[in-house]
Amino acid sequence: MDINVGDILICKKNHPCGNNRFIVLRVGMDFRIRCEKCGHELMIPRKKIEPNIKKIDRQ
Description:
Layout: E1 8-11, E2 21-26, E3 30-35, E4 41-45, H1 46-49, E5 53-57
Antiparallel strand pairs: 1-2, 1-5, 2-3, 3-4
C-alpha cells in the first residue's frame, strides 16, 4: 500500500471518540497516526492497520 506522511486514512472502525479519520504522521514498519477529532496519537504496526483502511485521502 502506498501511504505517505500527511495522508488522511479513513478506517473501517471508529476511534472511541467517534471519528474514523486519522492523519499519518510517520510511515515505516509502524504508523504514527493522529485522530482528527480529539488529537490522540497512536503507533500501530503496518500489519495491523493496512487491513483496517477503507479509503486514503491524498493531500
